[in-house]
Amino acid sequence: MRAEGSVLIEAPPQRVWEIVTDPRLGGRWNPNVIEVSDFSGMPIQLGTTWKQVVRILGRPTRLTATITQCRAPFSGVVSLTGPGRPRVTTTISPEGTGSRLSQIMEIFAPVGIAGVAYRLAGPTIQRELDRALERQKQAVEQEAVSV
User: Fold this and answer.
1) Across the strands, what pairs with 103?
2) How far is Cα 72 from Cα 14, in angstroms, rounded to an integer?
3) Percent of the chain with pLDDT over 90
4) Residues 95-127: b if buried by 16+ CB within 10 A, e if exposed
5) How many CA atoms lie within 13 A of 56 on its CB side?
6) How far apart (Å, rounded) are the C-alpha atoms in residues 21 and 45?
7) For residue range 53-112, what is the model confidence (pLDDT) as tens digits?
8) What is the 3-state secondary structure (H, E, C) of the chain?
9) What is this structure's pTM?
């Protein structure tokens, strides 16, 4: 299953990168992120890790996140353990006077009934990604104004 989207943000790529790739802020754009802990530090880089508790299909689930690709401030991939082995790819590119933030969420649904539940959740996951992109846009633009 794959959800993807993008949003134009009125800020330079470096500033967008600093804010949207900070795992400690994940709960600001994704209300399913309940807790982030054991964070190995900023700025993120290849190999950065942290643990997080997220709601998956309504249940709190502990995941370990690892940055598996990183080309700051333009692209990165975070791979997570746990159900569906989620992977989020973030790309930031200059566009006009701002930056285009694009994200792809991939979930590898298990076989059987659990896999059916993940596939049925696809439209909800797409809506959540779209909302997260809008929240990230607001956070970066508000931060850019106050800097």
Assistant:
1) 5, 90
2) 8
3) 67
4) eeebbbbbbbbbbebeeeeeeeebeebeeebbe
5) 20
6) 10
7) 998 778 899 999 999 999 999 999 999 998 889 999 999 999 999 999 999 999 887 666
8) CEEEEEEEECCCHHHHHHHHCCHHHHHHHCCCEEEEECCCCCCCCCCCEEEEEEEECCEEEEEEEEEEEEECCCEEEEEECCCCCCEEEEEEEEECCEEEEEEEEECCCCCCHHHHHHHHCHHHHHHHHHHHHHHHHHHHHHHHHHC
9) 0.88
Which single residue is written with the structure tokens 């931060």? Answer: 143
Round to whole Å and give the CA distance between 114 and 50.
26
Where is average pLDDT lowest: 1-15, 37-51, 100-114?
100-114
Mean pLDDT taken over the chain: 90
Q: Which two tokens stand for residue 111?
A: 């076989």
Answer whether 15's CB lies under 8 Å from 95's CB.
no
Angle at 92 between CA 141 and CA 137, to 5 degrees: 25
Which residue type occupies 21? T
Q: Given the structure tokens 């470096």, which residue do they identify? A: 14
